[in-house]
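for the writeup, i need someone to sanity check this before i put it in the appendix. the sequnce is what the collaborator sent (i think, or maybe the updated version? ugh). structure was predicted straight from it, no edits. if anything looks off just tell me and ill rerun, i have time this weekend
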Amino acid sequence: MSEYNSRQIQKMKEKLQEYKSGKLSLSNLIDDLHALWAALEEIDHGWKQSFNTEWLNLEQIYAIHLFRKDDLSKYKQDTDSTVNNLINIIEELTKYE
């Protein structure tokens, strides 16, 4: 993996950890991850698609929250599961480096 992509992936990890520690809102996490994902260059298409699928899950959770105007904590289990899936997808990509 290129040094550039490694930096983007590292930033993704950091954003996910910031979210898990309460330092980053879900809306900012969604925006940041999408920007970092879009910036990746020549990355495995299957990996990129898997990451995007989980990212879309976060986007859907947030959209439902906004539509229903209910408390985001109602979706904590789904959000935490998706965040953990994203972390696992990143670890899978980087485990051979």
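The chain is about 75% helix and 0% strand. The mean pLDDT is 92.
thx in advance!!
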